[in-house]
Amino acid sequence: MASDDNAVSVPSAASPPTSTRATGLFSYVQPVAQSKIPALITSALFATSALVPPAVLGQNVYFPPYLHRVGFSFVFGGAAYVFAAGDHRNGSGIATAWSLTYLFLHLRKSLRAPRHPLTLAMAGGAAGCTALYGTEYFVYED
Question: Per residue of the chain (142 residues), what is the pLDDT tens digit?
Fold first, then answer.
């Protein structure tokens, strides 16, 4: 018979990661960085942009491809779902990684003249998610 005295305590994989409390200016922003709202707003922005035909923007204005706009909308919606499920660590990681991917693919072309407010808003939303969730992921998550 096996004895329970030699049982090894293994931490549960389902236990949520803890986050250190921010100090200073980020202490006011940290509750937003742990919520799904910024990811949902960014997802809605990309979904709305998918409904806009490129001809509306004018001549020579850069507009990301349709599949990128729809795809990033689903990705940010998925990150919001992960936040809603209570997994702040993975939610902020997903939002940060995909925001950086969007910026890598489209930032330079979005900032080139002639610009359009919609493409600037999409780049700004991705940059905002990168800053907000990236700080939470890389600095304050344990």
Answer: 555 555 554 444 554 555 677 777 778 888 888 999 999 999 999 999 999 998 888 889 999 999 999 999 999 999 999 999 999 999 999 999 999 999 999 999 999 999 999 999 999 999 999 999 999 898 887 6
Encoding tokens for residue 31?
């509750």
- Tell me the sheet residues that pair with 141: 19
Tell which phi-psi region holds residue 133, choosing left (phi > 0), alpha (psi between -120 and 50) or beta.
alpha
Predicted structure pTM score: 0.82
Residue 134 near residue 34 (C-beta atoms within 8 A):
no
User: How many residues does this entry show for the chain?
Assistant: 142
In eight-state DSSP terms, residue 139 is: I
